[in-house]
Design goal:
heterodimer; A: about 350 residues; alpha+beta; 6-stranded mixed beta sheet; B: mainly alpha; two-stranded parallel sheet; 23 helices; about 80% helix
Chain lengths: ~350, ~525
């Protein structure tokens, strides 16, 4: 299958600062992909370059095989057939919902236009909002209108910039799930930019991890969560406790027990553990509790792991501080990194 | 595309400015000695300093009183104090010149009563400072009222919690925070002072602007007129820089903190009445006394109604055409400002440039066209006049339009682009409709200014084409003040509705509210 969207070594500089640094990625039709990174990592700039609102200094962008941007020149946004949903939804305040959604439908008779708008509104279950004004809509409704508007021109790709950041808590998840269901049903190809790892893992078929202008890792959410290429990549997807270890003859020794690490050469390493992988056990390593905090769904224990303070989630009854608890390390879920944290040694060992 | 159009709009301003420069350094008899130019410049400087100082104090204090305090009449004063903007400065001068004339009723009465004459001569630089301050303080008042309304209420609350009284809070918190607005407001008042012709000429005060008009009308020398204009251009550039610096400060002020306007403090009876008296004095000085005096003397001679009707039609026609052209050009400039910010800065020089100077600058290119199309007299003169208005008022239209456009979130026109509209189409379908109110504001500002405009009209108008301002000026110069009153008051009543609408508009233009309306 040919990728629908292809970026080849795309770079963008503002003055002396390289905001997007030689990014390459591919997106296949019908997939929902997430570009995940902290704010300021260049992900929004990347999205704007795909949409045509910004232009790369180097590299090429192809959509459906057609070159749309390179250092030599770029197609204007209106000629790209890409839909973009802005972070603030960017609904036109002087047009009602129907006219907002129909804005991009030019060259149609009034009746055809209306028919198409109503069918779009119907797909997103907002037909009743047709004559409403943007300011009277809730955040979730505004977003549906913005997405319906972006899809009206049947774009080959739908780009969403931090689509759920304006919604809070419970609403966010409901809106997100419903929207994702609708987008999958119509088979849209979607690229979502977000800084929220939970959101990215919940919605993405493909995940692109981005940091400081570069793509760190690409793959399915689960693979990326369990086998991060580096500590930075690991931390983009969630908390990770890092403790020092010593590799000796295919094993790594840590304050919470030994791990088997075949193929890792001897010397100091760092072991990354997801907090949920440290659980109380009948036998294992004894560690001292420095403090406990109540956190609603359980407790957070601050533990002394061989001189490193680490916070773990604790579902059992909390121990008092100063006490010791016995922990068992799930060695399958621990990741051995090089001492600098920039390479996943267990991954390399497995691959090699 | 938009960049090119914006460049054309900027050319309208830059053409007369370069015309002045070319004329000043051109060949031609400069029959006016340098000492005269220097004397005129010195008088102009005195007027500028005097009006600057008086309007700064009067405007800032009045704004502080109406925004921060409750006292009798506050709700009326908060908009009425801006009304003198509808009164042409020359009309203020006519009123006071007659009222305070040595042979006038007021001075005669005082002489009879006390046996002494008032130690004050209205036809003097001092008198001109008084008249122009009374006419132009609203520029400072409006700038400062907006600035005080936009002060973070929390800063003033904090000052109060720290034990500062009203006066101390004014000097230690409010004034430092609004100094850029004060600079901008005073700069506007001084620009108008530099540009004024009708009032100072009537008061027999010789300034550079009267020099420009006289050099042209009496000696017929464009070169001499342009040389009088050069120091004015330099002063204009300085004032513009001050005004721009003020605007930079304003952007800084309106941070991201939640905006809440300061809560006014009630004044006790004594101070409250004093505050009301101060505001009433300003309103009387700028509007009620001169307009009342002119109105009272209307009956003395029956005005030539048919001539006035034609002049009113001419004035309104010019003002409307001028407003449309100016707003159109300023809109192009504002839309192109992202691409070419330097153009906009250059075009703003036009506002600081007196109308007489603009007119002189247009005479040279006009001469070329006249010689090419000899029959085009009246039509060409009108076109040039409208261009002169546009050049002079471009910046004052540009400011509200630019503010209206920047209030639009950048994602809106971008969304239009991703929905298939070109840059021009997205400007037409999104940016202009959303900035519609600002376009109206800009149009009314220009309209009022053109109704009051005198020197450029005097220089460029076609033969026998009178506006209300021109008729008023002619009567006044013939010492027929009773008859000068009618056209002056007609200007006032034509401008008044626009000024009232504008005042309300500026009051409600608190930045975050505007933003929320759009979201």
């Amino acid at each position: 299958m040919n990728p629908l969207l292809e970026l080849l070594e795309v770079s963008r500089r503002f003055g002396s600062r390289t905001v997007v640094d030689a990014v390459s990625l591919e997106l296949n039709p019908g997939r929902i992909a997430c570009l995940l990174g902290p704010s300021g990592c260049g992900k929004s700039t990347l999205l704007r370059m795909i949409a045509g609102l910004d232009h790369p200094d180097e590299g090429e962008i192809r959509i459906g095989g057609q070159l749309v941007a390179s250092a030599k020149g770029a197609l204007p946004p209106e000629a790209r057939g890409v839909g973009l949903v802005f972070q603030d939804n960017a609904l036109f305040p002087h047009l009602n919902v129907e006219d907002n959604v129909g804005f991009g439908l030019t060259g149609l008779s009034r009746a055809d236009r209306r028919r198409q708008v109503l069918s779009l509104l119907d797909q997103f279950h907002i037909t009743q909002l047709a004559s409403e004004w943007p300011h009277s809509l809730s955040g979730g409704e505004q977003q549906r209108v913005a997405i319906a508007r972006a899809l009206a021109r049947a774009p080959s790709i739908l780009l969403l910039d931090e689509p759920f950041s304006g919604l809070d808590g419970v609403l966010k998840e409901t809106v997100r799930n419903a929207l994702l269901e609708d987008l999958r049903r119509i088979g849209a190809t979607v690229l979502v930019v977000t800084h929220d790892p939970e959101e990215a893992m919940a919605i993405a078929d493909d995940l692109f991890l981005m940091s400081e202008g570069r793509i760190l890792q690409t793959g399915g959410p689960e693979v990326l969560y369990r086998r991060p290429v580096s500590l930075v990549a690991a931390r983009l997807l969630g908390e990770m406790v890092v403790i020092p270890g010593q590799a000796v003859a295919g094993h790594v020794r840590t304050a919470v027990g030994d791990l088997s690490a075949p193929g890792v050469s001897d010397g100091p390493v760092r072991v990354g553990i997801r907090p949920e992988s440290l659980q109380p056990a009948a036998e294992g390593a004894d560690v001292r509790v420095l403090a406990t905090r109540f956190a609603g769904d359980g407790h957070r224990l601050i533990l002394d792991l061989g001189g490193v303070e680490a916070t773990v989630r604790w579902r059992a009854a909390p121990p008092a501080h100063g006490q010791t608890v016995t922990l068992k390390l799930d060695s399958a879920s621990a990741v051995v990194f090089s001492d600098a944290g920039d390479t996943n040694l267990s991954e390399r060992a497995r691959a090699g | 595309m938009i960049g090119v159009l914006a460049a054309c709009a900027a050319a309208v301003v830059l053409l007369p400015l370069s015309g002045v420069l070319a004329a000043a350094f051109g060949e031609g008899a400069a029959r006016i000695p340098l000492s005269d130019v220097l004397r005129y410049a010195a008088t102009t400087a005195i007027l500028a300093l005097g009006v600057g100082a008086f309007t700064a104090v009067a405007g800032a204090v009045a704004a502080w009183l109406v925004v921060m305090h409750r006292f009798p009449g506050r709700s009326v004063f908060s908009w009425a104090l801006a009304l003198p903007l509808a009164m042409p400065a020359f009309a203020v001068a006519y009123g006071y010149a007659d009222l305070l004339d040595v042979a006038g009723p007021l001075r005669s009465a005082i002489r009879d009563l006390t046996g002494q004459d008032l130690p004050f001569e209205i036809r003097s630089p001092g008198g001109a400072v008084f008249v122009l301050s009374a006419a132009f303080y609203p520029y400072v008042f409006l700038a400062m009222r907006a600035a005080f309304l936009n002060l973070p209420g929390s800063a003033l609350d904090a000052a109060r919690m720290l034990g500062l009284g009203s006066a101390a809070a004014f000097f230690k918190v409010a004034l430092p925070l609004t100094r850029p607005a004060l600079g901008a407001g005073v700069a506007l008042a001084v620009m108008e002072t530099l540009a004024d012709y009708g009032a100072v000429y009537f008061l027999s005060v010789q300034t550079l602007t009267t020099g420009v008009v006289r050099a042209w009308s009496v000696y017929g020398s464009t070169v001499s007129a342009a040389r009088f204009a050069l120091p004015l251009l330099a002063a204009a550039a300085v004032l513009l820089w001050i005004e721009r610096a003020g605007r930079r400060g304003r952007i800084h002020e309106t941070g991201k903190t939640r905006w809440r306007s300061p809560e006014p403090v009630p004044l006790d009876r004594g101070p409250g009445l004093a505050a009301a008296a101060f505001c009433l004095f300003l309103l009387c000085a700028g509007l009620l006394v001169p307009a009342g005096w002119l109105l009272a003397h209307l009956g003395a001679q029956s005005p030539d109604w048919s001539r006035l009707a034609i002049a009113a039609r001419n004035s309104l026609g010019l003002a409307i055409a001028g407003a449309l052209v100016t707003v159109g050009l300023a809109t192009l400039l504002a839309l192109g400002s992202e691409r070419r910010p330097r153009l906009v800065r250059l075009a703003s020089l036009g506002y600081a440039t007196p109308g007489a100077v603009m007119a002189i600058g247009l005479l040279a290119p006009a001469g070329v066209i006249w010689s090419l199309f000899p029959g085009s007299g009246t039509a060409l003169a009108l076109v040039l006049l409208i261009l002169a208005y546009a050049a002079r008022l471009m910046a004052s239209a540009l400011e509200p339009i630019d503010a209206g456009l920047t209030r639009i979130r950048p994602s809106l026109p971008q969304a239009a682009r991703t929905l298939g509209r070109s840059e021009v189409a997205s400007a037409l379908s999104i940016r202009l409709p959303l900035a519609g109110g600002s376009l109206l504001t800009a149009g009314l500002i220009v309209l009022v200014d053109i109704l009051k405009e005198l020197p450029a009209t005097l220089i460029l108008r076609p033969f026998n084409f009178d506006t209300l301002a021109v008729i008023a000026n002619n009567y006044a110069l013939d010492e027929r003040l009773g008859q000068a009153g009618a056209p002056s008051l007609m200007i006032l009543f034509l401008s008044l509705p626009a000024v009232i609408w504008l005042t309300g508009r500026i009051a409600s233009a608190a930045p975050p509210a505007g933003r929320e309306r759009l979201s």
